[in-house]
Amino acid sequence: MRLSPRLIDRIVEDLFVLLERQEILEYGEDREACRELFRAAILADMHAEEALDAEVEGIIEQNREKFREVPAYQMFSRIKRQVARDRGFIL
């Protein structure tokens, strides 16, 4: 899933505020550095999912003849779920 930088910042801020209110988050004096860690984690997860998508596309391409009777979007979804499960990746 592609998210705009603005939306990522909004997610980070909302998460940050939620964790602060519940007194779960302690960040000392450098609030911005902590926010950047959140942002980096979200971006890393997005990049990992993009890599997963590319792997799934490769699997489909290599096995196109086997999958010709199944619509591409269904095959992508099925394979992605299975590969994600095998890798311990939570979608």
Q: Could you describe the largest sheet, including whether it forms a barrel? A: none
End-to-end distance, in Å?
10 Å
**β-sheet strand percentage:** under 5%
Kindly state the mean pLDDT as a whole number? Answer: 90
Cα radius of gyration in angstroms: 18 Å
Shape: elongated
Which descriptors apply to this entry?
single chain; 91 residues; mainly alpha; 71% helix; 0% strand
Short summary:
The chain has 91 residues and is an all-alpha fold. It has helices spanning 5-21, 31-62, 72-87.
Characterization of this structure:
The chain is an all-alpha fold and 91 residues long. It is built from three helices and no strands. Helix content is 71%, strand content 0%. The radius of gyration is 18 Å and the shape is elongated. The protein starts with a helix and ends with a helix.
List the helices and strands and how they pair.
Layout: H1 5-21, H2 31-62, H3 72-87
Helix pairs in contact: 1-2, 2-3
